[in-house]
Design a protein that fits this description.
With 381 residues, this protein is α+β, with helices and mostly antiparallel strands. It is 25% helix and 24% strand. Helix 5 crosses helix 6 and helix 6 crosses helix 8. Keywords: Acyltransferase, Transferase.
């Protein structure tokens, strides 16, 4: 079997601006590490590319070397005082490196399971889907098989174009920057978000809780900026809009909606008002899928792999990402000891502002967040 090319969408997330997706879950007892390791190897073989290295086929095409499986997984023992964030082996970005790495750490009377995955291999949903399948195998249960046909998210008919429309590229969820742009690394803070107020607002406003949460975080961001415009980046999963994908597709299956608003307008707006902007913008995502993929195809045709060094998912100096990874039930991450008792999202220090929302294993109607900002539990009115 020849190397499997990445989809057009996958290619855009192999750039160095897209750090690896990383997640560590902890369980309150000692689990069978050997069994979890074996389950990883089996799962990585089924999820095409998870045990492969990234290779370059030509100046416009990256692929997964599935003929040379290299499942990267190990079991170790550590002191119970070792931070949970250190219980994983980060993948390295670039050609020649394996696209996913797992690790099982017995730390005192607990067990940590860590996963690091290249963003070029999958999006956040795909990472959690892999984790859920790995967990099911580890406890001897069956789980849904993945769809791995990445040709669905390519548009070969756009490869004869000889130019890229910057506005269309932005509508596809990407911007370009100067190749020598230097950005400082940002600190990451963590906390807990009580959803009670957002849920109450959702009931009376007809807005979703997710849109209200994103709106509140975006207003927090606008309060810190002195730029004329600020941009909210909202990844929108397209699995439910593309029949050939469906909920079991493994790969990058989202378009990023960029919402540009005058900074002062965001500061002066109520959270429900901003949430309305978010809802309306996200509603345009299904209608832009084909055009977005075609524009990304044209970008690769014109600029090649080398051009990805200039690509960012949103304006790096005036944009804020809200990525909601909380929709995966914690019960799916049961490796044999029930749902996890703790979780973290370790990562390199980012160079763009953003916030990741995660399930809260300890409290109902609550989310955990990891953000470049400190979000105070202020009123969301």
């Amino acid at each position: 079997m020849a190397p499997v090319p990445l989809s057009t969408v996958d290619h855009m997330w192999t750039a160095n601006m897209a750090g690896p997706l990383q997640f560590v879950v902890e369980f309150g007892e000692v689990l069978d590490a050997d069994r979890i390791v074996e389950a990883y190897i089996e799962t990585a073989r089924e999820f095409v590319g998870a045990d492969a290295a990234l290779v370059q086929l030509d100046e416009r095409t990256l692929a997964m070397d599935v003929d040379d499986p290299r499942p990267a997984i190990r079991a170790t023992v550590a002191e119970s005082t070792v931070p949970l964030s250190e219980c994983l082996d980060p993948v390295e970005i670039g050609v020649g490196h394996v696209l996913a790495r797992g690790r099982v750490v017995t730390r005192g009377d607990r067990t940590a399971v860590g996963l690091s995955m290249s963003h070029g291999l999958a999006d956040g949903y795909g990472m959690f889907f892999f984790l859920a399948a790995w967990a099911a195998r580890a406890r001897g249960a069956r789980f849904l098989s993945p769809r791995c046909d990445r040709e669905v998210l390519t548009r070969p008919q756009a490869r004869d174009r000889d130019s890229v429309d910057p506005d269309a590229l932005r509508r596809a969820g990407f911007v370009t920057v100067e190749p020598d742009l230097e950005l400082p690394e940002l600190d990451v803070h963590t906390g807990r978000l009580d959803l009670a107020e957002c849920e109450a607002q959702a009931e009376v406003s007809g807005l979703s809780t997710a849109d209200l949460v994103a709106a509140g975080l975006f207003r927090d961001y606008a309060a810190t900026k002195d730029t004329d415009l600020v941009t909210l980046a909202c990844p929108v999963d397209i699995r439910r809009f593309v029949r050939e994908l469906g909920p079991t597709y493994f790969g990058n299956a989202f378009v990023q909606v960029l919402i540009d608003v005058e900074t002062e307008r965001v500061r002066n707006a109520s959270v429900p008002e901003i949430a309305g902007w978010v809802r309306d913008a996200i509603a345009t995502a299904p209608g832009r899928i084909d055009d977005a993929i075609a524009e990304l195809e044209a970008f690769l045709q014109v600029h090649g792999i080398a051009g990805l060094d200039r690509v960012w998912g949103y304006p790096p100096q005036s944009g804020f990402l809200v990525s909601n990874l909380s929709r995966i039930p914690a019960s799916w991450l049961d490796f044999g000891a029930g749902p996890p008792v703790g979780l973290v999202t370790p990562g390199r220090r980012p160079r763009q502002d953003g916030c990741y929302l995660l399930p809260d294993p300890e409290r109902a109607h609550s989310l955990q967040w990891a953000s470049t900002l400190e979000h105070e539990p202020a009123a969301r009115s």
